[in-house]
Amino acid sequence: MPYQSPISPGRSWYEDTAGERPDYPRLDGDRSCDVVIVGGGFTGLSAAVHLARTGADVVLMESHRFGDGASGRNGGQLNTGQRAWPEEMEAEYGFTRAKALFDVAEEAKAHLLEFSRINGIDIEYMPGQLSVAHKRRYVDSYKAHAGIMAERFGYPHISFMDAKETAERVGSQRFFGGVRDTGTGHIHPLRLVIGTARVAAASGAHLYENTPATGIASNGGKVRVTTSSGTVTAGKCLIATNAYGGWLEPVSAAHIMPIGSFIGATVPLGAGSPVIPGGESVDDSRFVVRYFRKSKDGRLLFGGREIYGVTDPGDIHIHIRRQIAEIYPDLKDVEITHGWGGYVGITMPRQPFVREVMPNVISAGGYSGHGVMLSNFVGKLYADTMAGNREKLKLFEELRVPAFPGGRKLRAPLLFLALNWYALRDRI
User: Fold this and answer.
1) Could you say which DSSP state residue 357 is in?
2) Which residue has the higher pLDDT, 421 or 218?
3) Which label site among 49, 178, 291, 381 has the fewest CB atoms less than 10 Å from its CB?
4) Can you name a GO cellular component term (predicted)?
5) How many whole angstroms separate alpha carbon 236 and alpha carbon 175?
6) pLDDT band (50, 70, 90) for residue 309
C-alpha cells in the first residue's frame, strides 16, 4: 500500500514520480556528537551535508520521513530575492541592507542549482516565472518593479508584461499585466529532498527518521535532545522544524505560525494546451497567493487554497478545481489525479525567523512560502557559522520579526480573522 504521510493530507504527485525514496533507521539509544539537528527538511538536510563535509560529527533526527513536511510537498517555485520585493525591503531597512539581502538570496538560488548539478540530483529544473496582477490597480507597481530591479538592484532578468502578453504567456484572460523573470524557475522539490539526504549520508552525517524529539535543554555548555528511544548530547543544536515543531520550545512557537496550503495535479493537458505555453511557473498578486505551473509531463500543478485553522478540507480536489476554473474556464471539468497539502511556516512580516533561542541552539524557519531556495541556503549558512563565519546568517538573524499577538491561545484565531480579511480584500 502506498505510504501516506501521517502529518500531511493526501498523496502528492511528487511522491509518485520521485523514484526511490530510501528509508533511514530510527535512533536507538543514547549518543553524543558535535551538532544535533532537529528536522529533516531542506534546512536540516542542507546543514547536515555542509557540516559533515567539514568533518563535524552530525546527528539529524526527523519525526517522520524526510519530505513529509513542506520541503517535499510545496509548489516548487524558486522565486527571486526575499518574499518582499527589494524596494519594499529598502523602505524598511535602507538600501544597503536590502541589497545585501537580495544578493544573498541570489547566492542561494545559484547554490541550489549548482549543488544539484554537481551531486547528480535531477530536480527537473524548468526556467522562468511569471508574477501577475489579478487587479488592474496593481499593474503600475509591477511595471515600476521591473525597472527598479534592473536599475537599482542589478537584476536584468525581469521584464514587464502588458495585459496582452500576460494573457498569451499564462493562457488566461484573468490577469491585467505582470512581470516575467527569466533568471529563476521551478523544480521537483521531493527529488531535492531525497537527493540531499543521500548526499548527507554519503558525507558522513548520521540520519534518523521516525525519531520525534520530545524536548530540548541547554545547560552546562551542552545541548540535550530527548526522544522516546534515546538522548543525543551535542555542543550545538539547529532546530529546523519550521511549521511542525511548535511544541519543542516557546520562542520559535511565538514567531512561526503553521498554515495549511493545498495543491492539485491534473492529468497531462497535451502538447497543444494554451496553458502556460512557455513552461514558466506563475504566482499572482493576491495576499492569499495562488501559484501554479506545469510539470515536465504537461500536468497543471495548482496551489492556492490556504487554511489558517487546524481542520483540513475534506476534499482537496473540489476546492482546487474551483480555483483552476476561475483562471482556466475550459478546465472546469479537468480530471485531478492528485490532491495534497501540508503546513507552511509563516511569520508576521513574512520574513524568515533565524535566532538563537537558547544557549548554543539556533532555530531557523518561517520562510513564508519563499523557502525552496532560502531554506537550503540557510542550512549551509548555519554550517558556515560552525567554521566561524556568521556574517551572512546574521543578515537573517537581524531581521525584525515580532512575535504573533495573542500568545499561544489567541494567535491562531487572530491570524484566522486577519488573513480571512485579506482573502476577502483579494476578491473585491
Assistant:
1) E
2) 218
3) 291
4) cytoplasm
5) 49
6) very low
- Which residues make Cβ contacts (< 8 Å) with residue 72, sequence separation at least 6? 12, 14, 15, 41, 66, 189, 190, 193
Is residue 166 a contact partner of residue 177, using CB atoms and an 8 Å limit? yes
Specify the DSSP class assigned to residue 7.
S
- Rounded Cα–Cα distance for residues 342 and 260 (Å): 6
**Residue 418: how many CB atoms within 10 A of its CB?**
15
Own/partner pairs, 350-353, CB within 8 angstroms, 24+ separation:
350/83, 350/84, 351/82, 351/83, 351/84, 351/399, 351/400, 351/401, 352/378, 352/396, 352/399, 352/401, 353/252, 353/255, 353/256, 353/399, 353/401
CATH 3.50.50.60 fits 13-74+190-257+348-418, yes or no: yes
Q: What is the mean pLDDT of residues 270-290?
A: 94
- 420 pLDDT band, cuts 50/70/90, is low
Contacts (Cβ under 8 Å, ≥6 apart) of 7: 63, 64, 68, 69, 244, 342, 343
Under DSSP, the state recorded for 33 is E
As a whole number of angstroms, the distance between CA 63 and CA 157 comes to 40
175 Cβ contact partners less than 8 Å away, ≥ 6 residues apart: 132, 133, 134, 163, 166, 167, 284
Across 198-212, 244-258, 371-385, least confident range: 244-258
Convert the pLDDT of each residue in 161-174 to its tens digit: 999 999 999 999 99
pLDDT at residue 29 greater than cutoff 50: yes
Cα(168)–Cα(184) distance, integer angstroms: 20
Dist. CA 45–CA 196, nearest whole Å: 6
Q: How far apart are CA 168 and CA 182, in angstroms?
A: 16
pLDDT at 63 over 90: yes
pLDDT (average), residues 12-37: 97
As given in the structure block, the three cell numbers for residue 214 are 520530545
Q: Select the more confidently predicted residue: 95 or 308.
A: 95
Q: Round to whole Å and give the CA distance between 426 and 359.
A: 43
Q: Residue 339 in contact with residue 264, Cβ under 8 Å?
A: yes
SS3 state of residue 163: helix
CA distance 358 to 217: 8
The residues spanned by each domain of the chain are 13-74+190-257+348-418
